[in-house]
Amino acid sequence: MVLAQLGGSIARALARMKDATVVDEKVLADCLNEISRALLQADVRFETVRDVKANIKTIVNLDALAAGTDKRRIIQKNAGSREAGLHPSKGKPSVVMFVGLQGSGKTTTCTKYADYYRRKGFNPALVCADTFRAGAFDQLKQNASKAKIPFYGSYIESDPVKIAVEGVDRFRKEKCDLIIVDTSGRHKQEAALFEEMRQVSEATKPNLVIFVMDGSIGQAAFDQAQAFKQSASVGAVIVTKMDGHAKGGGALSAVAATRSPVIFIGTGEHIPDFEVFDVKPFVSRLLGMGDLSGLMDKIQDVMPADELVPKLTEGAFTLRLLYEMFQNLQNMGPLGQLFSMIPGLSSQFIEKGKEKEGQAKIKRYMTIMDSMTQKELDNTNPKLMNESRINRIARGSGRLVKEVVDMLEEHKRIAKMWSKLPINNIRRPNNRDSLKPLVNALPPNMLNQLGGLNGLQNMMKQMGSQKR
Ligand SMILES: Nc1nc2c(ncn2[C@@H]2O[C@H](COP(=O)(O)OP(=O)(O)OP(=O)(O)O)[C@@H](O)[C@H]2O)c(=O)[nH]1
Q1: How remote is the CA of residue 243 from the centroid of ligand 1, in Å?
Q2: Ligand 1 in contact with 269 (CB < 6 A)?
Q3: In terms of Cα–Cα distance, which of 327, 351, 331 is closest to 339?
Q4: Is 215 in the pocket of ligand 1 (CB under 6 A)?
Q5: Of 100, 193, 198, 318, which one has the fewest beta carbons inside 10 Å?
Q6: 138 CB less than 6 Å from ligand 1?
Q7: Number of other CB atoms surrounding residue 460 within 10 Å
Q8: Burial zone of 76 (CB within 10 Å; 0-12 exposed, 13-18 middle, 19+ buried)
Q9: pLDDT per residue rounded down to tens, the chain (468 residues)
Q10: SS3 441
Q11: What's in the domain note (predicted)?
Q12: Which atom belonging to ligand 1 lies closest to the Cα atom of 274?
C-alpha cells in the first residue's frame, strides 16, 4: 500500500465510525480491524499493529464513557496522536534536544532548525552541550552567529549536563520560546552516549527529542533509529544529507518502519538547505529521479512531448514556453501535486495549503507576460530585458516593477533547471515498462513501502487523477 494512502484508509475507517448511530464494542472492533489492516498493508510490523490496537482499546473505555461523540473524538485523537507535539508552538517556551551519532550533521541541523523557526517568527536560541568533540562549540558559535541566533556554551566546562541546564535557564529568562540543546555525538551507539543523553534529558526536561540521522547510510537506519528511539525517547527524526544520496529513500522508509516521524530533511551543507518533510512532495520528487520517467510522464500533461522537444532543442527555455506551460496548467484545475513536478518552480508553489497562492502567482505572471512584445517572449538574450522594458511591462500590466523583476528571476531559475534536463528522455511512458528505470533506482525497502510496482503505478494514477 502506498504510504500516502495509509492516512486515507484510517480517515475512512474513522469516518465510518462517525456515521454509526451508536458506538459499541462491535463498531470499535470493526474500526480497529480496518486500521490494523491498513497498517499491515503499509508494511508496518505485526507486533507494532498489535500494540497500537491494544493501546487504543485500553484508552477507550467504552463502559466509562457516556456519549458516542466523545468516544469518537478520543479514538480519533489517539489514532492521530503521532503528530501531536512534533512542532513547537509560538509563545509557549519549548526545549528541543538534538541527539545523533558523530558526523550525522547534528550541529549543522540545530542551526538550520533554529533558523527555520526564526523565520517563522519564533525567538530561538542554541545551547552547545557537546563537550565531547573539541571544536563543537566553535562550530555552533560560528553557525549561530551567521544565522544571528543567540547561543550558549563553554570552552572550559566539561560537564554537558551543567552547560545544558545553565543555557536553558538563561534563555528561559531571556524569554526565548525555542531553546535548542545540541548534545555530543559519538562514533557508535555506545552505552555512555545514551547515559549522557539520559542525564541531559533528565536535567533539561525537553518537550521534544530530535534524532538526527545521516541519510546516506540507507536501510541501516532502521537499527540506529530503533536504538535511539528506545534509549532516548526520540519524538521525531531529521534525516540529513538527502542531497545526492541514492540511499536516502531507504533511510526514510527504514525510519518510517520504526514509527518515528521524520519532520525535516537536510539537503545540503548550508543553512537554507532544509525542508519540511512531507510524504507527498517527497514521493513527487522521487518520481522525478531515476531516469526522470515519472516526471516526464507528468510533463506530458503540461506540455506534450511532440510540442515541447522541438521547442527546447531549438534553443532556450523562453518566456513564451513558460507562458504556454502556465496556460496548460491553468486548464487543468487544482494542481498542488503537479506544481511540484515542474522542475525549478520554487517550493512556495507547492507548500501545503498554499496552492491558491501559487495559482494566483501564476495568473499574475501571465498578466505580466501579456504585456510583453513577441520579441520579448521569444527572447534568448539575457541583456534584452533592460530597465525601460521592465518599466513599460510593469505599467502595461498594472503591476509593480518589483513584481516584473521577480517574475523574470523566477523564469531565469526555471530555465536554468530545464537546461539541465535530459530532453531526449521525454517520451510517452504510460506502460509498466516505463516505470522500470524508476523501480531500479529505488531502494527495495522504499519500493515495498510504496506498494511495489503496482503501488507505484496506482500512485501515479492517483496523482494523475487529482488534475480533474
Ligand atoms: N551534503 C550535506 N552535508 C551535510 C548536511 N548536513 C550536514 N552536513 C555536513 O556533514 C558534516 C558533519 O556535520 P556536523 O553538523 O558537524 O555533524 P555533527 O553530527 O554535529 O557532528 P558531531 O558534533 O561530531 O557529533 C559537515 O561537513 C556538514 O557540513 C546535509 O544535509 N547535506
Answers
A1: 12
A2: yes
A3: 351
A4: no
A5: 198
A6: no
A7: 21
A8: middle
A9: 333 344 455 556 655 655 555 556 777 777 777 767 765 665 455 655 665 566 566 545 444 444 444 444 444 443 333 344 678 887 788 999 998 888 899 999 999 999 999 988 899 999 998 877 777 888 888 999 988 999 998 888 888 899 999 999 999 999 899 999 998 876 665 677 778 888 899 999 999 999 998 888 766 777 778 777 777 678 889 989 877 655 565 676 667 666 678 888 888 899 988 887 765 444 334 333 322 333 444 445 555 555 555 666 556 678 887 787 777 666 544 444 444 444 445 444 445 455 667 778 888 999 999 999 999 998 888 889 999 999 999 999 999 999 999 999 888 877 776 666 555 444 444 444 545 544 554 445 445 545 566 655 555 444 433 332
A10: helix
A11: The M domain binds the 7SL RNA in presence of SRP19 and binds the signal sequence of presecretory proteins.
A12: 31
The CATH code for residues 3-83 is 1.20.120.140
250: nearest Cα among 227, 271, 232, 224: 224
CA of 240 to the centre of ligand 1 (A): 8
Distance CA(319)–CA(367), nearest Å, equals 13
Q: Which amino acid is at 80?
A: G
How many whole angstroms separate alpha carbon 303 and alpha carbon 293?
15
DSSP 431: S
Superfamily of domain 292-425: Signal recognition particle, SRP54 subunit, M-domain (1.10.260.30)
ipTM of the complex: 0.96
Ligand 1 atom closest to residue 130's alpha carbon, by position in its atom list? 23
Task: State the Cα angle at 280 between 274 and 281, rounded to 5°.
Answer: 40
Q: State how beta strands 151-152 and 124-129 pair.
A: parallel
Distance of CA 260 to the CA centre of its chain: 14
Q: Do 251 and 221 touch, CB atoms closer than 8 A? A: yes
Amino acid of residue 441: A
Among 127, 269, 273, say which to mutate for ligand 1: greatest number of ligand atoms within 8 Å of CB: 269
Domain ranges of the chain: 3-83, 94-277, 292-425
Q: Atom 22 (ligand 1): residue with closest C-alpha?
A: 102
pTM of the model: 0.52
Residue located nearest, by CA, to atom 13 of ligand 1 = 105
